[in-house]
Amino acid sequence: MEMAEAKAEEAATWVCWDIENCPIPNGCKAEEISQKISLALSKLNYLGPISISAYGNMNHIPPSVKKALSSTGVVLNHVHVNSRSSSSRIFRELLDWAYNSDTSNLIFISRDDSFCSYLSKWQRDRNKNVLLAHPPNASDSFVSSAKTLWLWNSLCTSLI
């Protein structure tokens, strides 16, 4: 893990969570996810404000889980069943972040390697800081698109 650079320490961090491809891991409580992400960031000296947006078909998530996530500030964005529309929505949100946001830190939680080249480019050319949380089966190209990585399961099940 790489510690935050000075310019990133106090900067805001946006968490873009592909809940379709990276669901809540077994053994993790929905109401603790936000806190666990904050803790992981603070251990690397990312101390700025954090916002978390989850994207996916929310119809598959039990109401109690949606309520628990929402109660901790996770913004749930329903995307219709078609997985292509989910990727498209996430891509539009990522583009907006990369080109229009003052937030310089991004945690992308996914396994969708179709975003690799964009994540690398934004980090290199747009002076954005990309961090990834991914499942164990993520592709090498996806994993290499960021300097800071977490396994999604271990991030969510770490001790608070």
TrEMBL record:
InterPro entries given in the database record: Marf1, NYN
Identify the residues that the record assigns to the NYN domain, covering every copy. 13-147
Instruction: Output this protein's name.
Output: NYN domain-containing protein
